[in-house]
Amino acid sequence: MIPSDARKAGLNGAPIVVAIDDRPANLLAIQALTEELDVRLVSFTSGRSAVEYLTRAANVALVLLDVRMPEMDGFETATQIRASARDSSVPIIFMTAIHQDDDYVDRAYEAGAVDFLLKPIQPRIFRSKIRIFVELQRHRQQL
Q: Of 109, 121, 138, 139, which residue is least crowded by CB atoms under 10 Å?
């Protein structure tokens, strides 16, 4: 089921940022960090729900994806996004608190990540990265 906010997302023309994390507290933190940005945040607590949404969503500028989740981890979620999303090239930033070794980071990039952030998230860096991908989305739409 797609949240009602997701159905409205993009209607005001603002680029959509999809956040996927199984912990609601982390999604609230992401919401707080994106409030001052000109984006519509659409949040999901499971990769499966997010993939379902992304098969139909337009105007998605960025996916923020937690690595460790039950049922479907971030690697599997990213792989499914790349295989079935309406825009399979949507940028994915992986976020994790515990896995920082090179093999793990390499696995994230192989699954389709364009970037990798370590938790706790640094607000200034986080917002800067979102702004960059939103701006890239706007440029793509103008072409």
A: 139
Q: What are phi and psi of 92, to 5 degrees?
A: -120, 125
Q: Determine contact, residues 65/77, Cβ cutoff 8 Å.
A: yes
Q: In the numeric block, which tokens belong to residue 19?
A: 């956040």
Q: Report pTM.
A: 0.89
The answer to whether 57 and 86 have CB atoms below 8 angstroms apart is yes
Residue ranges in the chain assigned as alpha helix (H)? 4-8, 24-34, 47-54, 74-84, 102-110, 123-142
DSSP three-state, residue 38: coil
**Token digits of residue 47:** 């990769």
> Could you tell me how many helices (H) and strands (E) the chain has, helices first?
6, 5
Contacts of 18 (CB under 8 A, 6+ apart): 42, 43, 44, 50, 53, 54, 57, 60, 62, 63, 64
Each residue of 26-50: pLDDT tens digit? 999 999 999 999 999 999 999 999 9
Q: Which residue has the tokens 């989740």?
A: 69
Tokens found for residue 12: 């005001």
In this structure, of 1-10, 17-26, 57-66, 91-100, the range with the lowest mean pLDDT score is 1-10
